[in-house]
Amino acid sequence: MLSAILACPTRPCLSNMTSVRIPQIGSLPVSRLFAIQILVIQILVIVVGTGLPRPVWAEPATDSLTHSATAQDPPRPPAWGQAELAGLITDSKLSEISGLVASRRHADTLWVHNDSGDGPVLHAMSYQGERRATLTLENTGSRDWEDMAGFRLDGREYLLIADTGDNGGLRSTLSLHIIAEPDQIADARTTPAWSIHFRWPDGPRDCEAVAVDVQAGIVLLIGKKRSPPDLFSLPLRPNDDHIQTAEPIGLLAGIVQPTAEDLRRNPRFGRYRSQITGADLDDSGLLLAVLNYRSAHVYPRRPGESWGTAVARAPIEIPFPWLPQAEAIGFDAQGTLWIASEQRPAPLLRLPRRH
Predict the structure, then answer these.
(1) Which of 58-67, 78-87, 179-188 tops mean pLDDT?
(2) 296 falls in which pLDDT band (50, 70, 90)?
(3) Residue 135 in contact with residue 125, Cβ under 8 Å?
(4) What is the mean pLDDT of residues 73-94?
(5) What is the CATH number of the domain that holds 25?
(6) Structural domains of the chain, count
(7) 274, 297, 137, 299: which is closest to 213 by C-alpha?
(8) The pLDDT of residue 21 is above 50
(9) Which of 220, 246, 286, 326 lies 20 to 30 Å from 33, alpha-carbon distance?
(10) What pLDDT is recorded for position 327?
(11) Which long-range CB contacts under 8 A does 3-11 form with residues at least 24 apart?
């Protein structure tokens, strides 16, 4: 990771971010290399205050967002400001964050989960990346949790966990688990309020991005490895417990694919940079954010318009500093975007909504 941080000439690096607060490591036992990694990140953040020239990417977001406007496009939504470093995630139990939800029930709280290899647990952490509690899901598998989403239904806040990872393309059925968000932030155990088991209509695929459109009563799912990325839907509350079949509803336009330079610099991982690794809907239900290793993208939707139509237009691209394996994204109630990485120590980024 250290070499990767120092070798990111094609992306804005951590040294260009606004420094907010870096959590202390405390008594966490770390290896010498781990300590060096944290020190380098801290030094890079401190460099911001030395008066170095502002890079082009850090100019006001209205200059850096890309969007092909036409007479048919919806009104431009609020923009997002430059990325800020909200915190540094160092807790050993938050080793590979793959999904993130900004709580609507509890202030200053993000729900996160790790990638495959962890148990069926969610963690609550602060806006500075400090872990506060662990929630264990009983009677629930965790074969390959890849994303999560939050939503409000019938006056209650819920969290949806997507057990949809399938790197090998071998799974015939996958699952979504829905739990009621706990009343308190404390270590606890819970069981799903309901689960959705489903298959893809045309064979296995990897999926690391989900969102919930409560108004439409659907779950949105985005395939990871197809080009262009494909968008599917499932009923949020199926009429029965049978295995559902995801319905294809569109293709995501405007996701830049790896360049020849990407592939030359890193033949193995260069091809992964455009793959969709996370998604979320804002509270209006009209903005769909998707994440890949390059940037975030937001697809605006007109009221009453289908998502298939909305994602067929070029999205708003929102750049952020280079992160190793950026795989978790979520809106908070103010429309701020939060982004986390699978690598630890993991910078926690916030991109504030501009009004």
Answers:
(1) 179-188
(2) very high
(3) no
(4) 85
(5) 2.120.10
(6) 1
(7) 299
(8) no
(9) 326
(10) 94
(11) 4/324, 5/37, 5/40, 5/41, 5/44, 5/322, 5/324, 6/40, 8/322, 10/261, 10/265, 11/294, 11/321, 11/322
Find the length of the chain. Answer: 355
- Map 135-168 to HEC letters: EEECCCCCCCEEEEEEEEECCEEEEEEEECCCCC
The DSSP call for residue 54 is: P
Sign of CA dihedral 89, 91, 96, 97: negative
Kindly report the pTM of this predicted structure. Answer: 0.81
What φ, ψ does residue 128 adopt, rounded to 5°?
-100, 0
Which pairing describes strands 188-190 and 131-137: parallel, antiparallel, or unpaired? parallel
**Of 68-77, 78-87, 206-215, which has the strongest mean pLDDT?**
206-215
Domain limits for position 83? 2-354
Decide the pairing of beta strands 194-199 and 244-245: parallel
pLDDT in tens, 143-164: 999 999 999 999 999 999 999 9
E strands, 168-206, where?
Answer: 174-180, 188-190, 194-199
Token pair in block for residue 103: 């709580």
The residue among 334 and 18 whose pLDDT is bigger is: 334
Report DSSP letters for 301-314, one per residue.
--TT--HHHHTTSP
How far is it between the farthest Cα atoms of the chain?
61
CA distance 80 to 267: 32
- Helix or strand or coil: residue 62? helix
Half-sphere exposure of 1 (CA within 13 A, CB side): 21
Distance CA 314, CA 312 (A): 7
Q: Which residues fall within 8 angstroms of residue 202, CB to CB, at 6 or more apart?
A: none
DSSP secondary structure string, 82-144?
--EEEEEE--TT-SSEEEEEE-SSSTT-EEEEE-BTB-SEEEEE-TTS-EEEEEEETT---S-
Please tell me the least confidently modeled range out of 25-39, 76-90, 124-138: 25-39
Distance between CA atoms of residues 80 and 183, nearest Å:
31
DSSP state of 6: H
Measure the CA–CA gap between 53 and 110, rounded to whole angstroms. Answer: 33
Kindly indicate the confidence band of residue 275, based on its pLDDT and cuts at 50, 70 and 90.
very high
